[in-house]
Specification:
The structure holds 2 protein chains of 2 kinds. By secondary structure, chain A is of the alpha/beta class. Chain A has 2 domains: about 130 residues, Rossmann fold; about 210 residues, Rossmann fold, CATH 3.40.50. In chain A, helix 1 links the parallel strand 1 and strand 2. Chain A is globular and about 55 Å long. The N and C termini of chain B lie far apart (about 50 Å). Chain B has a domain of about 180 residues: 3-Layer(aba) Sandwich (Rossmann fold). In chain B, helix 12 links the parallel strand 5 and strand 6. By secondary structure, chain B is of the alpha/beta class. The chains are: A alpha/beta, B alpha/beta. At the A-B interface, helix 3, helix 4, helix 11 and helix 12 of A face helix 7, strand 4, helix 8, helix 15 and helix 16 of B.
């Protein structure tokens, strides 16, 4: 029996990374998640008032708590990500690193510019040892990516109406696997999960909650939410549903353009917004919470995250106007800190019962 | 209230200059032109645009728009000691104290009705994520149209072309609001005035590096970043000329800091905006003179008045507050060498991920050329947490280190 050698990994840190392109170039995308127990050292290079997501990733880079990476792709999604790229280069000067620019708005010029950024990334990947690849390879990468996105959507849809013990924990584990493991493994595990959901009888004893925020990769956090009586009907998180979202190749001028357009049409991180509708993020969150028949919304944001800190007041106001209960939690990704929020979460859920 | 404040300020400075023309320092002339800008903003006679820091103020001026970056309001409130109430207003609305004080102050000012209602807003993705979010919030508050300029981070032809195209789109957006198309001749004239002001400013900045420096006290504070608001107007040329000429005269007359200058300092990023005695105390107690500010730097080439789009795009892209930390530290190192500084002070404005976020990288780069950096922990706008004693203690220790250390330059 012959074994297929594992693909070289390309590290990434943001849901705006064009994963199908990395896959088409013959690499395995590997998300450097802000998990683990690397000592807290990033502040000496950056500043302690930078978001814990970036600091914990940098902590991992400092102590080399990383698999072998053929390169690193960091998207200029916010000030802090840009600073991560700066610090990464200083700390690991021998690493190959690509800083990818990303506009904040979604008009056609922005899509066209991001397309050129992807072409620049494609050239860098070639320099990093990618086998020659063309549009067909990129379309194949998109197809696999879309399969994963579709399975995640099926899982979420089933979870929206079925309360299955520890389902949120397992879904988050699958999100983390999809971000870090080869996609064929993800497809197998995800299909099994979807099948299991279909065969499991639902229960209805927990309170349906819509969860939004930036980064919450720790499955234990979802365990705590469930133990507190919350049933997460859907999420809007960078480490959750925002990473895999279907890419439509039908109307696009090229596969590159299709990926670029998809980046700007999927549910946005707070850093991307619509100048025509400045409060659109809040409207979208409310729409989705109502669509999933959530009884309340929990917002989990990391300290010092400017894109969310600046938009939380408008989100609060929008949800308040719609009489949608909201609980805002702030965290720093330290192990166990979510546990400190237990009492507040339990009280919120109790209030909704 | 603000209209009357700026009108009184203009009248007061004009009267002083008229009474004693020989005492019309460059700082006074600068203050007068800034006050006149404030007066125009609040006059209600011209269309107004609230903008991000890297907006093309000369282009907007050429189209008859009085424009200003929103952080100016935060700085102005702090300078007049009024920021506290506006910061509290924003905090009560849910804007956390971990966010930038400039932005909280302007949100509070808008909520309290202190800012004139703009005709439209122009956000810029550079320098910071917080800034673009603030302008988005203001657009929502004022219910006015918002245009966003995405300033690319890489300095490459695709980025320049992308921004140049957006600038053309901005001109069309303005025309849609004013019903007045852009007049190429007027834009060319505006760009010529910008180029002239930049040449003069650049010369003034170089002269400030003379040993001893002709720059005194806080007179260079905020100059580069605020004068950009007047680019494209004769006022910018007047101010820049005043600085250049004053510095030339002081050097010729050996009337700068003379024998008092023992240590030469660079100030990184923005100055502390509220009143405090640090600069004077540094000079008086330690002979330490701020001879250059990071933001007082012309980092772009002259713009072609006949075809200014690419040049305006390059200007925004090449600013020290845009791009990678490597780009920024190269500019800082060049400035430190040119101005022969002994050390640098970085206030590390609390809440600034863009600027302060690179502080360790900046300190490391400056160390490579023998220039120590003191990182302070200050909110440059919010005076409520300012501890003069603590800051002085840290500066005092830093001055001792610098005094005991040989200069990295041949002085």
């Amino acid at each position: 029996m012959t074994t297929v050698p594992p693909l070289s990994k390309i590290g990434f840190t943001c849901a705006y990374t064009p994963l199908p392109l990395i896959r088409a170039a013959g690499f395995a995308p590997y998300r450097v998640l802000p998990l683990g127990d690397a000592p807290d050292q990033a502040g000496q290079w950056l500043h302690d008032n930078l978001c814990p997501h970036v600091k914990r990733i940098l902590d991992r880079a400092i102590v080399d708590d990383l698999p072998a990476l053929a390169g690193m792709v960091i998207v200029n999604s916010c000030d802090t990500m840009r600073r991560l790229a700066d610090a990464w280069q200083r700390i690991r000067p021998d690493d190959r690193l690509f800083l990818m620019d990303l506009p904040t708005t979604a008009e056609e010029r922005a899509v066209a510019y991001f397309t050129t950024e992807m072409e620049r990334l494609a050239a860098a990947l070639s320099d990093w040892g990618a086998a020659a690849f063309g549009d067909d390879d990129l379309l194949a990468g998109i197809r696999t990516y879309n399969e994963i996105a579709s399975l995640f959507e099926q899982a979420r849809n089933r979870l929206a109406t079925r309360q299955i013990p520890m389902a949120g924990v397992r879904l988050q584990e699958l999100y983390n696997q999809a971000a870090t493991l080869p996609w064929n493994e993800t497809l197998t595990n995800l299909q099994a999960f979807v099948d299991e959901l279909a065969a499991t009888p639902p229960s209805h004893d927990k309170v349906p909650i819509f969860l939004f925020g930036n980064v919450l990769p720790d499955p234990q956090a979802f365990q705590l939410l469930e133990e507190s009586g919350a049933h997460i009907v859907s999420d809007d998180l960078c480490t959750g549903s925002r990473l895999f979202h279907p890419i439509d190749t039908q109307a696009a001028a090229s596969p590159y353009h299709a990926i670029a357009a998809a980046m700007f049409t999927k549910p946005p991180c707070a850093r991307t917004f619509d100048p025509q509708r400045p409060a659109r993020l809040a409207e979208n969150l409310l729409d989705r919470a109502q669509h999933y028949r959530a009884q309340g919304v929990i917002g989990y944001t990391l300290k010092f995250c400017d894109p969310y800190l600046a938009r939380l007041p408008m989100i609060q106001q929008k949800l308040q106007q719609a009489r949608m209960p909201l609980l805002l939690l702030e965290g720093d990704l330290s192990p166990g800190t979510m546990g400190q929020q237990r009492t507040r979460i339990e009280a919120f859920i109790e209030m909704l019962r | 209230m603000m209209k009357a404040y700026f009108s009184d300020l203009v009248k007061g400075i004009e009267a002083k200059i008229e009474q004693a023309p020989s005492e019309a320092t460059p700082r006074k002339i600068f203050a007068l032109e800034v006050a006149r800008l404030g007066e125009r903003l609040y006059s209600g006679t011209t269309p107004v645009a609230w903008c991000g820091v890297t907006a093309p103020f000369d282009l907007l001026g050429a189209m008859g728009i009085t424009s200003c970056f929103v952080e100016f309001v935060g700085g102005m409130l702090a300078a007049t000691g009024m920021e506290g109430a506006f910061l509290e207003e924003a905090e009560q609305l849910g804007f956390g104290r971990d966010t930038c004080g400039y932005h909280r102050a302007v949100i509070g000012a808008a909520e309290k009705g202190l800012m004139p209602v703009p005709d439209f807003l122009v956000a810029t993705s550079s320098p910071c994520t917080g800034g673009v979010a603030t302008v988005e919030n203001l657009a929502r508050h004022f219910e006015k149209e918002l245009f966003v300029l995405n300033v690319p981070q890489p300095d490459n032809p695709a980025g320049v072309a992308y921004l140049a195209d957006q600038l053309r789109d901005l001109a069309a957006f303005v025309t849609a609001h004013t019903a007045t198309p852009l007049a190429p001749d007027r834009l060319a004239q505006s760009i010529q005035l910008s180029n002239q002001a930049c040449d003069l400013l650049d010369e003034a900045f170089q002269l400030a590096g003379h040993i001893p420096s002709p720059a005194q006290g806080n007179e260079m504070s905020n100059l580069g970043i605020v004068l950009a608001l007047l680019f494209g107007t004769p006022a910018a040329v007047t101010v820049a000329t005043a600085y250049r000429d004053a510095f030339r005269q002081r050097i010729a007359a050996s009337a700068g800091n003379g024998g008092h200058e023992r240590l030469r300092l660079m100030w990184i990023q923005n100055r502390i905006q509220f009143k405090q005695p640090i600069t004077e105390w540094l000079a008086d107690a330690h002979g330490a003179v701020i001879v250059c500010d990071e933001l007082n730097n012309i980092t772009w080439d002259a713009i072609d008045p006949q075809d200014p789009w690419a040049g305006m795009a390059e200007r925004a892209i090449r600013l020290c507050i845009n791009g990678t930390a490597d780009h920024r530290t190269r500019l800082l190192q060049d400035m430190a060498r040119r101005q022969k500084v002994h050390g640098a002070v970085n206030p590390c404005h609390w809440g600034c991920r863009q600027g302060t976020g690179a502080r360790g990288l900046i300190a490391d780069s400056m160390k490579q050329i023998g220039v120590p950096v003191l990182n302070l922990e200050v909110d440059c706008v919010d005076s409520r947490n300012f501890s003069e004693g603590q800051v002085k203690t840290r500066l005092e220790a830093f001055m001792e280190v610098l005094a005991a250390k040989p200069s990295p330059w041949q002085l």
